[in-house]
Amino acid sequence: MTRKERYNTVLAWFRENRPVAETELEYSDPFSLLVAVVLSAQCTDKRVNIITPPLLERFPTPEAMAAAEPEDIYPFIKSCSYPNNKAKHLCGMARKLVSDFGGQVPSDTVSLQSLPGVGRKTAHVIASVVFKQPKLAVDTHVFRVTNRLGLVKATTPLETEKQLVRHIPESQIPLAHHWLILHGRYICQARKPRCEECGLTGACLYYQKLYKEKNRL
C-alpha cells in the first residue's frame, strides 16, 4: 500500500464510521475554550470539564480574569496538573487579551501564541475549533496514531503536523484532528492498543508488524 493509498483508506474509514467528531472539552465561547485548552495540558478533558464551570462562573470574561491574581485562580484549578503555572498563565493570558486584543480572542495563530500559556498546539486547537481554519494540532494521541498507522514517519510534533497537512485535504483537516485524537484516546491507546476493535488494521503498519511477529512465534 502506498502512502497515498493509506491516507485515502484511513480518511475514508473515518468519514464513514465517525462522520461527527468534535472536541470533548465543554465551552460556550472562544474565551471559555481557550481557558479549557490551557488547562488541558497533561490533564484529562474529563477533569477540565469539572474544573471550568466554577472557574468561569467566578471569572466569566477576560476582563474579570485579568483583574484577578494567580492566587485567586489557583483554588479553582488545584486539582489539575501544574496548577501554579496554569494559574499564572491564565492570569497573564487574560491580561494580554484585554490590553492587546480588546478582550477578544484573536483568530490568527501568531497572535494566539503571543498569549501566556498558549503554544502552537493550543493555538491550532482554537483556530480550528472556533474559527474553522485548516489548522491541525498535534498532541500525544495524534503523534502516536499517525506514526503507528504509517501516515507519517516523524520524531517531533512539528514534523508530524507538516507531513499530515501535506496529505490531508484542507477541508478535512479540522475533522481529521478530532478523528485522530478520539481514535488515540479510545482505540489506539498508548500502552494497550485495542487492535481487535480497530477498523484500520488493514492499513496499519504497527498492526502488520505485530501480526508478523506473532506468526514467527
Gist?
Helix content is 61%, strand content 0%. It has 217 residues and is mainly alpha-helical.
What do these coordinates show?
The protein has 217 residues and is mainly alpha-helical. The chain has two domains: 3-21 and 136-216, Helix-hairpin-Helix base-excision DNA repair enzymes (C-terminal) (Endonuclease Iii, domain 2, Orthogonal Bundle), CATH 1.10.1670; 30-129, Hypothetical protein, domain 2 (Endonuclease III, domain 1). Helix content is 61%, strand content 0%. The protein has twelve helices and no strands. It has helices spanning 3-17, 30-39, 45-58, 62-66, 70-77, 83-101, 109-112, 120-129, 140-149, 157-167, 173-186, 205-216. Helix 9 (140-149) crosses helix 11 (173-186). The chain is elongated, with a radius of gyration of 19 Å. It starts with a helix and ends with a helix.
